[in-house]
Design goal:
Elements lengths: L5 H36 L4 E5 L4 H5 L11 E3 L14 H6 L5 H7 L8 E5 L6 H12 L3 E6 L3 H4 L16 E4 L22 H22 L15 H11 L9
Parallel strand pairs: 1-2, 1-3, 3-4, 4-5
Length: about 250
């Protein structure tokens, strides 16, 4: 691939961000792995939440071949990706005050669980209040966000805070404000967002760290296998039966 062309430039930008996250956020990712392992070892449940495109990295670690079976998606109807019409409804719901509290009231989260909240900007009401309300309930919260937004934008939450201000642990995905890596004459706006690539890698690295730490403690982590390999369905059925009280995506 020609590195001087936009496609090659995007790969270079994404690889650069991944390296930056690995080098600068490695300790935080390891700490996230410890929180995951601690929660699993104590019998707690794992949840991931994101609104809009930030839901994609959350979905990427749920019911996934090679993934931890105990990771559940905390889904809010209308804000999971762009699955509603008009798609702008999801953006509007993300700015509604008190929605997060209602969602948690109806969710299975309880004290001792772990919630990963993903929000690129970390400024909207839903992810900020999700973190705040979860912690009030005794749930530990990991935030995955771009810390730079807190200095370059204003909060849309009534508290005046950002997601990074209401978490037990924060991982910075290093994405620049606007989430677009390329510019070009004749193109009126920056383009080629990298947040999904980088944040999905962060999520998988966190889970990998947690799985590794569980194994090091002598606890076999409940993993899922691909349903497209021989014996995969049988393996997964056994895992889901054994850990059914902590798996909510089958209910």
């Amino acid at each position: 691939m020609n590195e001087s062309k936009p496609a090659g430039q995007f790969f270079d930008a994404a690889i650069g961000l991944l390296r930056q996250v690995r080098d600068e956020e490695g300790e935080h990712i390891a700490a996230a792995g410890t929180l995951i392992a601690d929660t699993v070892a104590a019998g707690g449940r794992l949840f991931a939440f994101g609104a809009g495109h930030s839901s994609l990295p959350a979905q990427d670690v749920v019911y996934r071949a090679g993934g931890l079976a105990l990771m559940n998606l905390l889904a809010v109807p209308g804000v999971v990706g762009v699955d509603v019409i008009p798609a702008t409804l999801g953006s509007a719901l993300e700015r509604v005050d008190e929605l997060a509290t209602t969602v948690l009231d109806c969710s299975p989260l309880r004290s001792g669980d772990l919630l990963i909240v993903i929000s690129l900007s970390g400024r909207n009401a839903l992810p900020v209040e999700m973190a705040m309300s979860a912690r009030e309930r005794g749930v530990r919260v990991i935030g995955v966000t771009s810390v730079g937004y807190a200095t370059g934008t204003t909060s849309r939450n009534s508290s005046g805070g950002f997601l990074k201000d209401h978490c037990d642990l924060v991982i910075d995905n290093k994405i620049a404000i606007g989430d677009a890596e390329l510019t070009m004459d004749g193109v009126g706006a920056p383009f080629a967002p990298a947040s999904t690539v980088v944040t999905s890698a962060i999520m998988q690295s966190m889970v990998a760290a947690g799985v590794s730490e569980l194994a090091e403690r002598g606890i076999e982590p409940p993993m899922l296998r691909s349903g497209n390999v021989d014996g995969g369905h049988e393996w997964n059925r056994k895992v889901m039966t054994e850990y059914g009280d902590r798996i909510f995506y089958r209910r």
